[in-house]
From TrEMBL, chains A, B:
Keyword Membrane part of the UniProt annotation: no
Organism: Hymenobacter edaphi
Keyword DNA-binding (UniProt): yes
InterPro entries linked to this entry: Homeodomain-like_sf (IPR009057), HTH_TetR (IPR001647), Tet_transcr_reg_TetR-rel_C_sf (IPR036271)
Name of this chain's protein: TetR/AcrR family transcriptional regulator
DNA-binding region: 33-52
Amino acid sequence: MSTAAPATAFDTRTRILHLAEELLLARGFNAFSYQHIAKELGVKPAAIHYHYPSKEELGAAIIQRQQRRLRKWRDLPRVTELTPPQQLDALLDVYRHRAAHGPQVCLFGALAADFLTLPAVMQQELRTFSGELTHWLAGVLAAGRADGSLQFSGHPFSKAAQVLTTLAGSLQVARVHGEEQFHYILRQLRTELLPTREA
Amino acid sequence: MSTAAPATAFDTRTRILHLAEELLLARGFNAFSYQHIAKELGVKPAAIHYHYPSKEELGAAIIQRQQRRLRKWRDLPRVTELTPPQQLDALLDVYRHRAAHGPQVCLFGALAADFLTLPAVMQQELRTFSGELTHWLAGVLAAGRADGSLQFSGHPFSKAAQVLTTLAGSLQVARVHGEEQFHYILRQLRTELLPTREA
DNA sequence: AAACATACTTACTTATTAGTAAGTAAGCAA
DNA sequence: TTGCTTACTTACTAATAAGTAAGTATGTTT
């Protein structure tokens, strides 16, 4: 067959990655262990090591998968064909979804606090991931301002960095103060970016 | 004497608290240990337990001290007598200072990611601390908009939450992407809040 | 059927964690 | 000088961590 691995292997590998990601976003990198994953999966911790020999590799795999997801999502016709305000809303929906589930924080918000304790490989992957997301949003914002569908001052890149920073922080706020606070912040963000219609 | 404890006791207790705070802001709550503090202080880990029996108490003491600092700072005549834009700048200076040293993140940014793993006492203290800071800033923003020295849309409380969220996030960004990115975000924030002079 | 790879388990090591209990040196108080 | 408090150290426990080595059952390939 042309598949890289047998079906069972693929399943377990994926389930490990999925669980590890959930645990990472819920507890941070230093507060989840192979035991947590193993127990939830009904296997022994050594089985996790078989698929991901070190925690560093597991962590890097989580970032890489999010990176692949971002690229895939960003390049979807369903997304590329949207207007800039619609693309912004599509991005906000990702965060709204996280806020409603847990609340989960985003990958950046989960790893940035522990950043200095992360293996160098993970630090670099997080930089790349975050940089690419910011670059994409900067493009959306620039296009939106050019066609008059979005408003803001300053450079698109600065504004994109500010917006993403606020979004990452807003999920942390949701965790501490509840989902309502999160929506206040998002409404504030959205209102400021969308031009007021003078009807 | 009227002092609560002998000079030596006070010194060590304070030095522990200071070091613990540094380690907390640098590594997160789950990635620093009594050993780290003890080694840096030149004592045995058990000595730390003598002053702060449990990590939960040590963590709570850190938040409580920041809470006291906030109240003291906020009520300083030097601060209360400033105009709203000056008060905002005074707040931003606190974050600028952190960004230039380390960069350190803020207490909220350090604890929010690990929030679900924190002892209940610390969760509650962080909520109180963060809530009080937001309340203060909301007052500053409301006063500033009332006298025309600050501009923003929406409720002062929502805007305050958004600003503080962005500030917390911006220090995490500084850690990942460098101090320059932090200043981009802060300039963006400041520019939007200060009315453009029509000279 | 023999050989091999996959996906594990069992059993282990080494390191680190928070926390405790008992002992001790130094200083102050009665 | 006797006793008490402060501020520790020494020596420990129990739990948990990441990671490894060797064994094993279940296939698949040849």
